[in-house]
Amino acid sequence: MSTVDARYQPPMPVCAGEVRLERDLLGEKAVPIDATYGIHTDRALANFPLSGRMVHPELTRALVLVKRACARANMETGDLPLHVGEAILSACDEALSGLLPEIGITDALQGGAGTSANMNANEVLANRAEEILGGRRGDYARVHPLHHVNLHQSTNDVFPTAIKVAAITLLRRLEKSLAALQTAFQDKEREFASVVKMGRTQLQDACPITLGAEFSAYGEALSRDRWRVFKCEERLRVVNLGGTAVGTGITAPRDYIFCVVDKLREDTGLGLSRAENLVDATQNADCFVEVSGILKAVAVNLMKISSDLRLLASGPRAGLGEIHLPEVQAGSSIMPGKVNPVICEAVGQAALRVMALDGLTASAAMSGQLELNAFLPLLADALLEGLSLLDAACAMFRTKCVEGLAADPAACEEHVHRSWATVVALVPAIGYEAAVEVAREVRETGKTVPQAVLERGLLSAPELRRLLSAETMTVLGQGREGKP
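-> structure tokens emitted (484 positions)
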């Protein structure tokens, strides 16, 4: 299920009760006394009243996982006292269990390349670890947000790494949703294998096809999407954690740099590796653009498929009406009895949104300058929203539309019977010019194709029946002289 809606939050309330004073570079500031966050988070809440959305939940979770891995690495190298490290790990585990809800409360769009989100995690984890060791929130005497939780890190390696961890997690969910949707279409392919209908090109009658064949194309497109999504995870596995500010690893000891990604790999179960060129991995965000392009391809297919289903179900009495979509809600406040294809419409809107988010992702990625991209919060918001939207759209499409849709064989048969386009099946036997004359007569007189062919003596009745049979018209290719 998508978590996007849960990110819309009212403004943080102003505390009218007791406060504590915290200090940073800019001076002192009052922070609500019971807050697990600190001065940096408080400034961010005041500075960035932009989208009304908090940081994506998966990105928040990924930030905590990164902090956990960093604490483990610093404990192993002896740079973090074991009792402090254990308290930080306990705080991380509580956060991962949903017990520290003030992590991730900063606005999704923020200046500073993600510094506010990083400091928010540092402060909440530090305050909880401080409590675990017997201190009070805001003391930071035992556990400090920067000296301990953020030890040997920078926002510039933590935040991009967390985006990749979050994106991989969501990619895996999307791949499962695509697989389930693909299976649903393949089930319909088998169910509709014998339903002959009129195929259409440019919205005009073309030649007969089976409804199952149409649905097989939808399943095949989703199969490609599933494979692309599965493969593009590889683009995100290389992270810059350990590179600190600009990819040189400044302030971080070598043994920490060489083990911290191993710890993150263990904690996440993801096949992560340290970038060979940490400067490149800190500067450039093109891998996210590549992944976003895959999401756009998924969105394109969902848009096309959902539009096709709307068209096939149109009417139902005065349109094509070749399939029936599940009725999930009344369609009109003024037209009694009307039911609209709302699930397909919603899928199409989600697809359009993802395509727009792809443009945002690309724009954010190219807005980096020199050693860093300050627009990563926008990139993360767009990419992760797109992943969540597609996951939710696929699940909704499958459960509320595809699995319950049904064919209308009578409508399909009627369209085939009424169309002169079936004459295309006779071309190998009677020739193109004769077929044109038959089609012209059918269009002008309203006769059926069999009537016109028999009256012209072009074929015998048995031969005509064989050539216009469902099996002959829909089999793959034809033998010589029109024989299948």
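The chain is about 55% helix and 5% strand.
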